[in-house]
Amino acid sequence: MTVLLPGIGAACCLGVGFVLQQRQAQRASLSDVLFFRLLLGLMRYPEWLAGIAAMIVGMVLSTIALANGEVSLVEPLTATNLLFAMALSRWLTGRPLGWNGWGGVLLLALGVTGFIVAGQPSEGGHLAGPLHRWILIGVVVALAGLLVAFARHLRPTLVATVLACAAGLLYGLQDSLTRISSQLASGHSIAVLFAHWQPYVVVCLGLIGLGLVQSAFETAPLRSSLPALTAAQPLAGIVCGIGIVGDRLRATPGALAVEAVGLVAIVIGIVLIGRHPCVAPKAAHRR
After folding, report:
1. For residue 30, is pLDDT > 60?
2. Is 98 helix (H, G, I), strand (E, B) or coil?
3. Cα–Cα dist 274/56, whole Å
4. Cα–Cα distance between 128 and 42 in angstroms, integer?
5. Taken in order 98, 102, 107, 112, is the CA torsion positive or negative?
6. Among the four 153, 219, 238, 268, which has the fewest Cβ within 10 Å?
7. Crossing angle of helices 81-93/253-274, nearest 10°?
8. Rg (Cα) of the chain, in Å, rounded?
9. How confident is the model at residue 82 (pLDDT cuts 50, 70, 90)?
């Protein structure tokens, strides 16, 4: 319960926060995409600030969950943020869910449940060595950087998808480093974190990810960005959790098969929910 409640609470706050942020960001000028002046401009709007506040609460709850459980367990739970985003969007738009919506909800729920039950994420591994750790961090950061560079040559809807995917990769890496930071602080005062590099990288990844997410939200409707963000983060987080933090999953053939099916169901469910009309209202007028 020390992981389940804050994990689901984080998903709820993140989902609500993403919807509120996108509703305001889509009204911003496209000339601000990938510039931090976009964030400065959005700070003037109460709805966007409310979305940021909800996201911050979600990140705090996610940190609590990561301090008490494995990254490979917390990531699938926070991926359900799309369920809460859909619930809020449905209330704002008044659209029914229909077969696609309910199908996405069912696939996401079953996928998360199947992955956790089959994988039984646990500790027991060891932190990766410096070389292994930096190689994996470098690969994730490089992939995110390549996606951002590639996005500059695409049409707006694809730009939003690619930028959101890049942000999801960085957030997944951030979650694994947050888990390490919580382990470093365990049994000590918070001051011990100032002597390690992980907390500083966590903050940097969060700020860069925030800029990418807002640019994605500004460029196209939510269905072009939120599914990619919600799918990329848990996948990257699970890989980094295993490769960096030392999380362990059951590795029997049957368990691996169910885990793989669960991840596929999660991704398909996310796509179905993210492309549902209630999560994709008509774009607002831009200045």
Report:
1. no
2. helix
3. 22
4. 39
5. positive
6. 153
7. 20
8. 18
9. confident
Q: Which pLDDT tens digit goes with each residue over 211-265?
A: 898 888 778 777 778 888 888 988 899 999 888 888 888 889 899 999 999 999 9
**For the chain, what's the residue count?**
287
Q: Which two tokens stand for residue 285?
A: 């007028």
Kindly report, residue by residue over 103-151, the tens digit of the pLDDT: 888 888 888 888 988 988 877 666 667 788 899 999 999 999 999 999 8
Read off the DSSP letter of residue 125: S
The pLDDT, as a whole number, for residue 287 is 46
185 pLDDT higher than 90: no
Identity of residue 231: A
Bridge partners, residue 122, by sequence = 248
Q: How far apart are CA 218 and CA 235, in angstroms?
A: 24
For the residues of 55-119, what is the DSSP string, one character each?
A: HHHHHHHHHHHHHHS-HHHHHHHHTTHHHHHHHHHHHHH----HHHHHHHHHHHHHHHHHHHHHH
Could you tell me which of 142, 159, 138 has the C-alpha nearest to residue 34?
159
Cα(209)–Cα(221) distance, integer angstroms: 18
CA distance 83 to 108: 9
DSSP secondary-structure letter at 122? Answer: B
Q: What DSSP string runs through 173-230?
A: HHHHHHHHHHHHHTTS-GGGGGGSSHHHHHHHHHHHHHHHHHHHHHHS-GGGTHHHHH
String of b and e for 81-99 (b: at least 16 CB within 10 Å)?
A: bbbbbbbbbbeeeebebee
Helix (H, G, I), strand (E, B) or coil at 27: coil
